[in-house]
Specification:
The structure is a homodimer of 114-residue chains.
Chain A: E1 16-19, E2 22-29, E3 34-40, E4 44-49, E5 54-68, E6 71-76, E7 80-83, E8 89-93, E9 97-104
Antiparallel strand pairs in A: 1-2, 2-3, 3-9, 4-8, 5-6, 5-7, 5-8, 5-9
Chain lengths: 114, 114
């Protein structure tokens, strides 16, 4: 905890494979904010889920069909959405592509175990 | 305030010109998180400043020479840093390019006046 509040970890972690078509890595984080890159191969799916963390999603590349709280939202290169705390959300991408997800607070559950 | 806690504003605002070489627009926001796109022409500068909001910066394109709390940090396409609350930070970009800045809480001072 000593340096976390004033210095961010900013070396990307190794990739964590989520399934055959998706993987993620952490790009930078402090306890307050965490930046995560998520790669999708064509047809990749992020199954619907919830978490207390608020999430901003920015599309680096590709087209993504999201459902957030039952509402369909298609976003593409350069678009962004914010998913409030505990809202059910998921996506799939026929094109494949890359999302930049930013969480507040940090997803401690994503950090490599030391 | 009625819908802000469960629905995000996700239509980009108009561009706000900051100076001859830089402009920004808000891509999406809730009270907890705000996603801002900042474009730099070659030689563009973000003068050193502070704010209480925690800031994640993701490089969409270009190379940026940051100074954060006196420490020089050069970041380029796909890199990210997190700037803690009230830390002095600024940047310049010889190449020009685009940053995606995410703030918690939202920068109320960036919102168009209604």
């Amino acid at each position: 905890m000593s340096t976390q509040s004033t210095q961010s970890a900013r070396t990307p972690t190794e990739w964590t494979r989520l399934d055959e078509k998706t993987r993620r890595r952490i790009l930078a984080h402090t306890p307050d904010l965490m930046v995560v890159e998520v790669e999708f191969a064509p047809g990749g799916v992020g199954a619907p889920h919830t978490h207390p963390h608020v999430q901003a999603t920015y599309v680096r590349e590709g087209t993504f069909d999201f459902v957030v709280s039952g509402e369909p939202i298609t976003i593409t290169d350069g678009d962004s959405i914010v998913v409030p705390s505990n809202e059910l959300h998921g996506c799939e991408s026929a094109t494949g592509g890359t999302l930049i997800d930013v969480f507040t607070p940090a997803r401690e559950d994503f950090l490599p175990r030391g």
